[in-house]
Amino acid sequence: MISPAKVDKKCLFLMNNPPVQKGKKMKQKTHTGAKKRFRVKPSGKIKRKKQGMRHILSKHSSKKKRQLGQLTYVDEANEYQVKRLLVL
Question: Contact at 8 Å (CB) between 14 and 70?
């Protein structure tokens, strides 16, 4: 064991932080906000919740509120962006 008095700052840094191996890529991470908002079905389609049910609900009819409470699928136009966020 090397005594701490003989170890300089650079050596101490390298001991605690080994160099990254070449050729290794970083892992892709799932967007944490997206994983809370979307669910992927076995068919590959992505389900989402409808917007508009947070506040000022007194102006909406009961029918409108009931329909907004149901889940729906992500549109094809937005599917690419959501899949990128979910790393699919």
Answer: no
pTM over 0.70: no
Integer Cα distance of 11 and 17 in angstroms: 10
Where residue 44 falls (left for φ over 0; alpha for ψ -120 to 50; beta otherwise) is left
Summarize pLDDT for 69-79 with one digit per residue, the tens: 999 999 999 99
Residue 71's nearest CA partner among 33, 32, 35, 39 is 39
Residue with tokens 């907004």: 68
Ordered domains of the chain (ranges, CATH): 28-86 (4.10.410.60)
Tens-place pLDDT, residues 23-45 = 777 888 999 999 999 999 999 99
| Rounded distance between C-alpha atoms, residue 82 and residue 74, angstroms | 8
Q: Which helix (H) or strand (E) holds 44?
A: none
